[in-house]
Amino acid sequence: MLARISIAYPKFGDVIANYKEFWSEINIPSKQTVLKEGDVSNALYFVVKGSMRLSNNSNGNEITIQFFFENDFVASFESFLKDTPSFFSLDTIENTTVLVIKKEHWKIIMDENPFLKELFFDFTSDRFINYIHHFLSYIKEKPEERYQNLLKNKSHILKRVPLQYVASYLGITTVSLSRIRARKNKK
C-alpha cells in the first residue's frame, strides 16, 4: 500500500512511513457512514482503495456534493479545520481502505513538514475550485449539459458510482437521469 502512495506522492509516502504511529489503516465496508451530518470532523482520511461521497440531507432530500477516489484526502474540511458541526455526511460507496489520522497528529506533521502544507493547500484549492464549478453548473447549465460534462470530464464516476448518487450529484432525480441517458443512447 505504501508503495502505491509513494508513487503518487513520493514525499507523502515518506511522511506516512516516518509517522506511522499516527496513521491507522481501516477497511470500511460499502455504504457505511464515516461522519454524520452535525458531528464534528476530527479525522482526515486518505483513500487508498475504494470510493466515498460527501452529501447533505436537505429536508429529506439527499444531495451528493462530491465523490472521492484513490489518492484523495477526504474530510468535511470546514468542520475539520474550524471544529464546527459538519454540514455533510461522509459515506463509503464501495468497500474502501483508508488511512486515518486524528487532527492533533495532522497538525504535528504539518508543522514538521512544510511541503505537506503545500500539498494540503493544493488539495483544498482543487476541491474549492471543483465546488465553484459544480455550483455554477447548477446555475448555468441544464441537467443534460451537466450530465454531458460529467461524461466528458469525469466518466470514471459513472463507472463506479450507483446512479442514484450520480443523479443527486447532478441535482436531478434518478428518473430524469434515466431519461437523459436513454436520449443519449438513441443518438
From TrEMBL:
<feature type="domain" description="Cyclic nucleotide-binding">
    <location>
        <begin position="28"/>
        <end position="110"/>
    </location>
</feature>
<dbReference type="InterPro" id="IPR014710">
    <property type="entry name" value="RmlC-like_jellyroll"/>
</dbReference>
<dbReference type="InterPro" id="IPR018490">
    <property type="entry name" value="cNMP-bd_dom_sf"/>
</dbReference>
<protein>
    <recommendedName>
        <fullName>Cyclic nucleotide-binding domain-containing protein</fullName>
    </recommendedName>
</protein>
<dbReference type="Pfam" id="PF00027">
    <property type="entry name" value="cNMP_binding"/>
</dbReference>
<dbReference type="InterPro" id="IPR000595">
    <property type="entry name" value="cNMP-bd_dom"/>
</dbReference>
